[in-house]
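Show me a record, fold above all:
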Amino acid sequence: MLPQEASANSEAKPGAKDSLIWGFGGPWGCALMSVLVVVIPYYLYFCIAFNDAMPIPRPEADIAAFWQSIVPTWAATGLYLGWMALQVLLQACVPGPQVKGVAQPDGTQLNYCMNGHRCFWITFVLVAILFASGILDPALIYRELGAMLTVAGLFALAMSLFLYPYGKKHGQAFHTSGNPIQDFFMGTGLNPRIPARTGFDLKLFFECRPGLFLWSIFNAVFAWVQYREYGYVSTAMILVNIGQLLYVWDCMRMEAALLSTMDIRHENFGFMLAFGDTPWVPFTYCLQAFYLIHHVHELPLWAAALAIGLAITGQLLFRMSNRQKDTFRRDPENALIWGKPAKYLETQAGTKLLASGTWGLSRHFNYVGDELMAISWSIPCLFATPIPYFYPIYFAMLLIHRERRDHLLCKEKYGEDWERYCKMVKWRIIPGVY
């Protein structure tokens, strides 16, 4: 669900059904996951907006107001569909470099327009103009947040219902189970496009545009609400806004790297990604800023320093790992990692598996950087409630699950060579721990 969740060495192929298709526990697991991804955003919204950010409902919690707030309204529908229309227009019309994606299981490579960085700046300039001119009131977005969550969920459901038959017909469905519940959740097409093959790429668009951008817009709105209510923006709110905005900006700046992520390379596009990209990302990833609106506190110097330190360290580790992998992929024989020739294992499949630098410390050391950044965004909220720490906890579970699935993919592809590689690089994510 997050673009920086990269796949280390795996490459999907027909027949990799155990790890790709059944990785969520079969139909019953997918049915349970479908319920959870719908319910959890509502629960988190209720906790912060109506229960003073406490995880257990309190006697004074206004449950009736919560139910009323999530009923779809015309304003929420207009806001959300207008936002989607803007992002579709930008994706379709803004020029950008043309890049070929990673080879598909059948050997073909799709073309992608990498205009995300330009769309990022255009979006935020347009929104700033709308806010500054009074054409769009940030307070309206804040008031309609619960209703927009429901509209986004209905949008994701409608898109999933469309994708189920469309993916079967046009989406290069290299791995499906034949079970309707399983395939609805996981998706029936790897790269559904409109028109098929050559048109608008649905998965890449939803993976990195409307949800990620809206996350940052929500954060800015929450900072504005805090300023309106209290007359200033707290240090904690500033740190969260800057840290998460830089994260989204960096994703768009390095947009071409998204083409090698697990979501783009391996996952079919169905309910899981559709719901994860639309309601889940913007409405749960903004939790810290949402919490901080009315939980204004003096941030201790140690907390500010820890948050900044973790954010910088996480970004450096993540970028270092990806740069090393990219350097190695471009020229394995002459690549220098930390000033020394790269160590690698050459497999019978013809792939070279890097075992130097951070990739010699663990098989997914880039995940360490991701998790440190996630923690850095929660630290400014301090520790009065666990709710702002939902994201790093969920993200850690997600990364471990993805590492496990990636491990199975690599084992299926490389066989004994993968067992040899695991002996060379012993640790999965955190050296000495896991």
